[in-house]
Amino acid sequence: MVLGSEILGIQKTFQDTVALISIVELGISYGVIYKLYKPIAEKDEKKIAVLLKFYRSAFKFIALAVTFLGVIVSFIIPKVIVGRYHSQVLNDSWLSFVFLIYVVDSILTYLYGHKRIMLIADQKNYIATICRTVCQVVMFILQIVILFIFKSFLIYSLAKPVFTLLESILINYEFKKNYKNINLKVKDKLEKDEKKDLMKTLSALFYHRVGAQSIISGSTLILVHKLGEKVTGLYYPYVFITNGIISATNQIFNAILSSFGNYLARHTKEETRSLYEKIYFFNYLMFSYFAVIFFCVISPFITIWMGKDCVFNSFTIFLITLNFYLSGIRHSIFMAKASVGLYRQDRFLALLEAFLNIYFCYVLSGKWGINGIVLSSIISTVAVPLWAHPYLVYRNVFEVSAKKYYQKFIFYFFITFVLGAISFYFCSFTRSFNLYLQIIFNTLICTSVVTGVNFIIFKNSEELKYLIKIARSIFYKVKKKVF
Predict the structure, then answer these.
(1) Sequence-separated (6 or more) residues with CB below 8 Å from residue 228
(2) What is the DSSP letter of 24?
(3) Domain check: are 438 and 295 in the same one?
């Protein structure tokens, strides 16, 4: 750990504060994609241009709002960052300047946001994902080099907006290459009723954004206030890894989203529900594996990365893993919800979830520290979205009871718990090994247990047969292209 846990705590505070400011973004990046499905299917380039023009104007307004709020908060943020490390080394001007770098990074994501939306809606999200992945990988490598050579958090932070700008430029290039016939200078505007409907969706998305960012930023501020930057810094690597996996896997479901929305428009409710259950099963397979791997591998990994003193006890790691699983297993239901723009019905529940999270976070963190922070997130998740989102999707999209979903959720959760227990038991025999060998052997053990047991349980299921069929199809296509 080059810069220390205090700097990690400051970094997380900056990131979460900028995310809170970005509430004004309203989730437009994915929340209004469903409006493009029909004109894309009908190849109505004029209607596409009108919608994209509206989205471009929205992103310009968002960028201005984030800039204004960011400048104001830059004067306040040094007062939030308190502690021994700050008082000895960092001054208010330095903290404000670095915070503004994070604000600029956020603003640059809106530069060609409307063009990114088009790629996603047109089932070309893989292009946006490739652009992002390439830029992120190169950025991470460069940041590691910067840390070891310069040991400067300032230079480390400057790399982020540079690569965000590069990613936006690549998105613009791909848009121009793929959509030469779409004229964004079109003079037509959205019809009054359609604009009104979009504004209703955006207002509902605002509630969801407020709820989501209040959970993230509120818990971070409470964590810093009650436990200090050092403890926040110790917790940050775990959050960094779980959020990284959540973000990466979310890209997969975002790529599926537009295909699912188009499928829904052309098929019966029953056929769509059948497809969804296969996607849900895929979601389970993915996160049963990631949760078990995380639980069994994270301790030796953190020991190598940050040192033995930064490793939490097994119970804390279990809570973090449980929270991680509950977040990831809901990817598929979020996807189905977003495919039809289902946001108004539960907009107030998003605020309730945020209130519960912050309340329990404040109450439990004083008694149980990090465990209280993580437990508050689990409680608010179970209390609201875990049951509410499936209920709304099954009632409004599939028009059937969500009972089957809940039954599968309990079944999947039970299997994941058993897989974790079995893997953890066998991994206990590697504790005397070298740390690097522990990671390798624990990964192999978890992979064998999760893959083997899931195959035995689901080998005759329609869901697994469907996924194997898809995997074979992809394999043969790649093989044909390569050879």
Answers:
(1) 9, 83
(2) G
(3) yes
pLDDT of residue 220: 56
Q: Are residues 74 and 163 in the same domain?
A: yes
DSSP codes joined into one string, 387-431: HHHHHHHIIIII-S-SHHHHHHHHHHHHHHHHHHHHHHHHHGGGT
Q: Are residues 150 and 214 in the same domain?
A: no
Residues 403 and 261 in one domain: yes
Query: Residue 194's closest CA among 406, 62, 397, 341?
Result: 341
What residue type is assigned to position 431 of the chain?
A: R
| Sequence-distant (≥ 6) Cβ neighbours of residue 332 within 8 angstroms | 253, 276, 279, 280, 282, 283
Whether residues 183 and 226 share a domain: the answer is no
Q: What are the tens digits of pLDDT across the range 76-115?
A: 888 777 554 444 456 788 889 999 999 999 999 888 888 9
**Position with higher pLDDT, 4 vs 366:** 366
Dihedral angle at the C-alpha atoms of 112, 116, 122, 127, nearest 10 degrees? 120
Q: Which of 135, 164, 190 is the last residue of a domain?
A: 190
| Amino acid present at 249 | T
Task: Mention every residue, 6+ apart, whose C-beta is less than 8 A from residue 397.
Answer: 264, 269, 272, 336, 337, 339, 340, 342
Mean pLDDT of 311-332: 94
Task: Collect contacts of 376-380 with beta carbons under 8 A, ≥24 apart.
Answer: 376/219, 377/215, 377/219, 377/323, 378/319, 378/322, 378/323, 378/326, 380/215, 380/353, 380/354, 380/356
What 3-state DSSP class applies to 183?
coil
Q: Is the dihedral of CA 79, 84, 86, 92 positive or negative?
A: positive
Residue 252 and residue 176 share a domain: no
182 and 232 belong to one structural domain: no
Residue 26 belongs to what domain range?
A: 1-190
For residues 267 and 147, membership in a common domain is answered with no
Residue 477 has pLDDT above 80, yes or no: no
Residue 268 neighbours by CB under 8 Å, 6+ apart = none
